[in-house]
Design brief:
This protein is of the alpha/beta class. The chain has ten helices and six strands. The relative contact order is 0.19.
Length: 238
């Protein structure tokens, strides 16, 4: 494992890293009439859809499933997915991962600057529904937020993470990105940033292959005392 440093800031993807969002479910359930939803596995979602802008993800999913005229069909598929996603958020809410909230609080306690950077236009609404220990919403605690920004290229292009670093006022090489999708890991590495892989879906191997180092299943595995010195590494045995 590489020990990174000196680091000064963290850039978080939101879906699947901070929040247990219903994006994958919405993509899957919206496939009815386009393809068999049962063929849309978590592995497929992580490999071809997660982390991408909506239209890019829709087209990639349909192409992976062999749907004819995927580029044209993607418009209706993306619109259906977005409506279902909004309904799910409104009806069921979006829980935060407890380990992620603990990690955010730890970074804030160290005086770190943190940013939210998601391709999803729903990320901010979802974060506004989550409270942290201070009583603020999760949305309020970030020093920079570039969620849902219109960018010429999506991940694996590093544009969204470079924009976050710019808004933080921290050079990219002094930032690390927390991501759960291989395409996001690739984007972080393309931007010369350290990449922390969050493997919540038994997908550590694909995150490692994309360049994540380290890869963890929980933020609780990260050594907070090392972050105080600007290093990203795993906790030792208790």
């Amino acid at each position: 494992m590489t020990v990174h440093g000196p680091l000064q800031a963290c850039i978080f993807d939101v879906d699947g890293v901070l929040l247990a969002s219903p994006h994958e479910r919405a993509w899957r359930d919206s496939l009815r009439g386009f393809a068999d939803p049962d063929r849309f596995t978590t592995a497929m979602y992580q490999a071809v859809v997660a982390g991408k802008p909506r239209m890019s993800g829709a087209r990639a999913a349909l192409e992976a499933l062999g749907v004819p005229d995927a580029a044209h069909q993607a418009v209706a598929y993306a619109e259906r997915k977005q409506k279902l996603l909004e309904d799910l958020i409104r009806q069921e809410g979006v829980p935060a991962f407890p380990d992620a909230l603990r990690f955010v609080q730890a970074l804030l306690g160290l005086g770190w600057r943190i940013a939210a950077a998601s391709s999803s236009r729903n990320a901010n609404e979802m974060m506004q529904s989550v409270r942290v220990d201070s009583g603020q919403t999760l949305f309020d605690v970030f020093s920079a937020n570039v969620c849902g920004r219109d960018l010429p290229r999506g991940k694996p292009d590093p544009a969204i993470f470079l924009l976050a670093a710019q808004d933080l006022g921290i050079p990219p090489e002094h930032c690390f990105v927390a991501e759960d999708a291989p395409v996001g890991i690739a984007a972080a590495r393309a931007g010369k940033m350290a990449a922390l892989g969050i493997a919540r879906n038994d997908d550590a191997a694909s995150l490692q292959a994309a360049g994540a180092d380290p890869v963890v299943t929980s933020f609780d595995e990260i050594a907070i005392d090392a972050l105080a010195d600007g290093r990203l590494c795993l906790r030792g045995p208790d």
